[in-house]
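Entry 14. Structure prediction run on the chain below.
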Amino acid sequence: MRPTVRFLSDELIQKIIDEAREVLGTLGVEIHNPKVLDLLASHGAKVDAAKKFIAWATSKDYLALVASKEGWANVPPGTRISLYENPDYVSVPFAKMTLDSINAADPTKPTVKPVPYVGVQFVAIPEFAGLATTVGQIFSAALAGEKSADDALAEAQDVATREMTKAGYIK
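Output returned:
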């Protein structure tokens, strides 16, 4: 077993997670740290456009748009607590299971075997692990300066579209 370093107690980690869920679920995401913004910009990111996109992609309006075009079953889960308070979404057969799974995930024990990090991801499709690895490698190459952010985004979109089509999610 790998040694782990713990700077925070389990109680403090849980408090941070609970408060982060509340903030993310009610306010969304904004990046204000100048170092992070400079890093993103230095690697070709269009920071203002990215901030606008993140705000839009986590907004209630976006969820309503997806629902109106694709149905409530296709709304991205986990982006807003308010989604699980929406009667239309709650009626989707897997909504309760998804919320229960998100709430049951223990960020201090994210894998079956112990790991030296804290955090979880939840995507309930079998293709996720492979897709996440590939997209992560593409984004890492962009962060390393091996390709532009625009090229990385285009390549990631192509990979995601190809894999989702192959799996039958996209007709």
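The helical segments are 10-26, 34-42, 47-57, 60-70, 87-90, 95-104, 128-143, 149-166.
Filed with the rest of this week's runs.
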